[in-house]
Amino acid sequence: MPDAPEDHLSGFVVAVDGPSGSGKSSVSKQVARVLGYGFLDTGAMYRALTWWCLEQGVDLGDADAVTAAAERFPLGIGTDPDAPDVTVDGTDVATAIREPRISTNVSAVAKILPVREILRVMQRRLINEAGEATGGVVAEGRDITTVVAPEAPVRILLTASEEARLARRSRELHGAADANAVEATRSQVVDRDKADSAVSEFTVAADGVTTIDTSHLDFDGSVEAVLQVVEAARA
Ligand SMILES: Nc1ncnc2c1ncn2[C@@H]1O[C@H](COP(=O)(O)OP(=O)(O)O)[C@@H](O)[C@H]1O
Ligand SMILES: Nc1ccn([C@H]2C[C@H](O)[C@@H](COP(=O)(O)OP(=O)(O)O)O2)c(=O)n1
């Protein structure tokens, strides 16, 4: 009997996990561009599901209702690093899913284990489709190295100090990293990571996972550090 589609991974998979603001999305996207690989932002999937539940008036505290929404989730997600579109039932939600109302609610959705299992299956299918199309994929999130693609040949935990992560997110959201801007960002970074840590281990590297601390690296340095781990694995 042939393997079920999710039984093995197609293409060369680079799995990247880490806390908010560590640089997962931006660094992984650039690594995918350099390698000519696909790119999968799994956080965008949790965000889009949260957007859809809110849109439909689903009570995020009702795990059965959110799971039912996940079962019929009409998500479209691009894996081209230059066009990572996100649509829900044909509506472009790429900008809407970055709004604070989604950032503050997404952990409630991500903590529901049957929802995680539904998205895990979708994520493996997307990784395989992208891997078949381009030869490889860089997939990033919170549980890619441990749950979604634990057999990936490259598994990286991207970390950075809380101070560095707060400053980056603050600059991104408020254009500044002064004390007020950092305080306004804290709940979206620190509190969310605490909530997300209940269901995924992304603060300590699992066995076989390489930690890259980007606290003192600039963006290009972080990209280079990831590429070096990939090159070592392919050598
Ligand atoms: N090594 C780095 N040094 C400085 N800024 C960075 C670095 N990596 C990412 N950034 C910036 O920090 C912000 C958050 O990065 P992002 O990739 O969204 O993090 P994550 O996906 O882990 O939450 C972005 O504005 C990004 O350009
Ligand atoms: N593989 C993943 C990816 C994201 N999540 C959850 C946890 C996060 O709070 C949200 C949003 O993830 P996202 O990567 O967009 O968040 P940050 O950019 O790191 O702030 O989704 C998850 O539980 N598992």
TrEMBL record:
Chain positions recorded as ATP binding sites: 18-26
Keyword tags: ATP-binding, Cytoplasm, Kinase, Nucleotide-binding, Transferase
Subcellular locations according to the entry: Cytoplasm
Record keyword Amino-acid biosynthesis present: no
InterPro entries in the record: Cytidylate_kin, Cytidylate_kinase_dom, P-loop_NTPase
Domain of life: Bacteria
Sequence ranges assigned to domain Cytidylate kinase in this UniProt record: 14-231
Catalytic activity: dCMP + ATP = dCDP + ADP; CMP + ATP = CDP + ADP
Any Pfam family matching the protein: Cytidylate_kin
Keyword Amino-acid biosynthesis set for record: no
Chain segments annotated as transmembrane: none
EC number of the protein: 2.7.4.25
Family: Belongs to the cytidylate kinase family. Type 1 subfamily.
HAMAP family reported for this sequence: Cytidyl_kinase_type1 (MF_00238)
Protein name stated in the entry: Cytidylate kinase
